[in-house]
Amino acid sequence: MRISVLQGDITRRRVDVVVNAANSSLLGGGGVDGALHRAAGPELLAACRELRATGLPHGLQTGAAVATPAFGLPARWVIHTVGPNRHAGQTNRALLVSCFSESLRLADTLDAGALAFPAVGAGAYGWGAAAVAQAALDAVEGFRASHPASGLELVEFVLHTAEVEAVFKDVLGPLR
C-alpha cells in the first residue's frame, strides 16, 4: 500500500473512495462535509437521509463509518466517519484512530483500490494536525498488519493547507 500526502481539494480526487469528515447527523455541514455534499449534489443528502430513515435513526456514532455512492464526485463511494469533537469534551484518542481504521476496513469491503482521507477531527473538532496524523499512522499500520491481502493500493491524505500537509508529511514520512 502506497501512502501519499498532498495539499489539494478532496472533492476533485479521482479515487474509488473519498472519506467525509461528517457530523453525526450525516445531513451535511461545514468544512469537508459541506464541500463534499455540494460537489456530490443533492443525491448525496438524499442517500444520507435514507440511511437515517432506515438504519441510523440516531445518526452515526463517533468513530464509526458508513458508505454511500459518490454521485457527482469523481469517486465511486463516500465513506462518512464522525470524529470526536474535542471542543465538546470528546478527548478519547481511540475514537479518532477508529475513524481511520473503520474507513480503511469499509473501503476494503468495497474492493477499493484507492482512498482519499481529509484530516478527520482537525479544524472545527479541535484536534491538532500532529495528533490527527499520528492517529492516521496508527490506523494505517494496524490495517496493514491485519489485512495483508487487501486490494487497497493507495491511501492519500488530501490536506487543505500547506501547514497541515507539512505536519502529515513529517508524521507519516516513514510509511511513504
Structure overview:
- It is a single chain.
- The protein is an alpha/beta fold and about 180 residues long.
- It has one domain: Leucine Aminopeptidase, subunit E, domain 1 (3-Layer(aba) Sandwich), CATH 3.40.220.
- Strands 1-6-5-2-4-3 form a six-stranded mixed β-sheet, with helices on both faces.
- α3 crosses α4.
- The protein is globular, with a radius of gyration of 15 Å.
- The mean pLDDT is about 95.
- This is O-acetyl-ADP-ribose deacetylase.
- It comes from Arthrobacter liuii.
- InterPro entries: Macro_dom (IPR002589), Macro_dom-like (IPR043472).
Return the CATH topology.
Leucine Aminopeptidase, subunit E, domain 1
The total count of helices amounts to: 5
Alpha carbon gap, first and last residue: 9 Å
Number of domains as seen in the coordinates: 1
**Overall helicity:** 25-40%
**What is the ordering of alpha helices and beta strands?**
EEHHEEHEHEH
Strand order across the biggest sheet?
A: 1-6-5-2-4-3
Name the CATH superfamily assignment: Leucine Aminopeptidase, subunit E, domain 1
**The first-level CATH class name:** Alpha Beta
Mean pLDDT across the residues is 96
Poorly predicted runs: none
Strand content: 15-25%
Largest sheet: 6 strands, mixed
Helix-and-strand structural type: alpha/beta
Assigned CATH architecture: 3-Layer(aba) Sandwich
Total beta-strand segments: 6
Q: How much is the radius of gyration in Å?
A: 15 Å
- From the spread of the alpha carbons, the general shape counts as globular
